[in-house]
Design a protein that fits this description.
The chain has 78 residues and is mainly β. The protein has a single domain, classed as Sandwich (Immunoglobulin-like), CATH 2.60.40. It is globular.
């Protein structure tokens, strides 16, 4: 599965978080993916169990620090 988003002006790189148990996402920690040192606008999620749900959000990081997290997107893994 690949998640994509629009680039943010003046972003140096992006940070991603996701959770696969969405029954109560606030009760479990989100997994933070490594910050990428480039301006990619997508991330691949490989090896996740089919039929599970994935919630994901991203934020841009630039010279003024991190932006707020994006809205959370939730999808079912096929």
């Amino acid at each position: 599965m690949q998640a994509r988003w629009r680039s943010v002006e003046n972003a140096t790189f992006y940070e991603y978080q996701f959770v696969t148990d969405i029954a109560n996402p606030d009760a479990i920690p989100w997994e933070t993916l490594p910050i990428t040192a480039h301006r990619t606008v997508s991330v691949d999620f490989a090896g996740l169990p089919i039929g599970n749900f994935l919630s994901f959000h991203v934020r841009a990081i630039g010279a003024k620090g991190p932006s707020p997290w994006s809205e959370t997107a939730t999808i079912r893994i096929n």
